[in-house]
Amino acid sequence: MTRPVPKPVRAAVIGAGAIGTTVIGALRAGRLPGVEPVGFVNDRRTGDLGLPQISLAEAMERADVIVECAGQTVIAQSGPTILDHGVDLLVTSVGALCDPEVAAALDAAGPGRYLITSGAVGGLDILTAAAAQAPFDRVSVTTVKLPETLVQPWMDEAAADRLRRTAEPVEIFRGNAAEATRLFPRSLNVAATVGWGVGDIGLVEVRLLGDPEAALTRHVIEAEGPCGSYRFEIANLPSAQNPRTSGVVPHAVLRSLGVLVGQPRGVI
Ligand SMILES: NC(=O)c1ccc[n+]([C@@H]2O[C@H](COP(=O)([O-])OP(=O)(O)OC[C@H]3O[C@@H](n4cnc5c(N)ncnc54)[C@H](O)[C@@H]3O)[C@@H](O)[C@H]2O)c1
Known about the structure:
Layout: E1 9-14, H1 18-28, E2 35-41, H2 56-62, E3 65-68, H3 72-84, E4 88-91, H4 100-108, E5 114-116, H5 124-133, E6 138-145, H6 157-165, E7 170-176, H7 177-183, H8 189-197, E8 204-210, E9 217-225, E10 228-236, H9 249-260
Parallel strand pairs: 1-2, 1-3, 3-4, 4-5, 6-8
Antiparallel strand pairs: 6-9, 7-8, 9-10
Helix pairs in contact: 1-9, 3-4, 5-8, 7-8
The site of nicotinamide-adenine-dinucleotide has 31 residues, from helix 1, helix 3 and helix 8.
């Protein structure tokens, strides 16, 4: 007996930057069977990406799922409206969900669902499974990135300059995941994602280091609880387009989208 061919799922992408451009290119090339790309939304005009540039309103009318690759403000400002339209939302800017008001607004919205891509991090499958058996006692994420990628608009010029010029690794932040993603909104999505994986963002202790020798972006994830003890070390090559983002992220987004639309491959 052959399986019936499901109706294609219509997808739009918000954000045509380092992550979004690769996602848009893969969708346009038909790399995700069962997904029909309808266009992308971007706050600036872009060059020709082979799909129509549309407004958010058009994306909500035309798509069954919107893939966010734009930034935390899009999730905070438009996430609930997208879900209320009955459109699913795949979230890449996971740090947005550390704001309890944003998370509550998304939880209250629907019938669209919001789901989170694993993004730059791995090991979430077993952390989620272990947390379902019994809550963790301790979870930490240590991230090491190139110092210049960690300069923030709220830093004064002297502090930003110290960071840009440091010849040695420096600890830039130590604290909880919510504070970490507020202060470093584009750099600590991993901590937020681990928080969602273990079901308690408040549990995640974050350490952020800037290392001028960090050719790869490193994340060490450690979790201890009644189910066991877990440690993952991930070293990703930064994206050539945006050194704040790891090159693997758009491929993780595409993998997540495949699962979301019911076309998983291999390991789920
Ligand atoms: N989950 C993860 O592991 C992970 C990893 C890396 C980056 N991220 C997050 O993904 C997001 C995108 O990363 P990137 O490296 O592609 O960034 P980028 O700056 O290269 O691209 C962002 C794009 O979104 C567009 N944009 C911004 N605000 C918009 C809005 N309101 N409406 C429409 N378009 C808008 C920008 O013009 C730009 O084209 C960031 O928020 C980043 O923090 C998540």
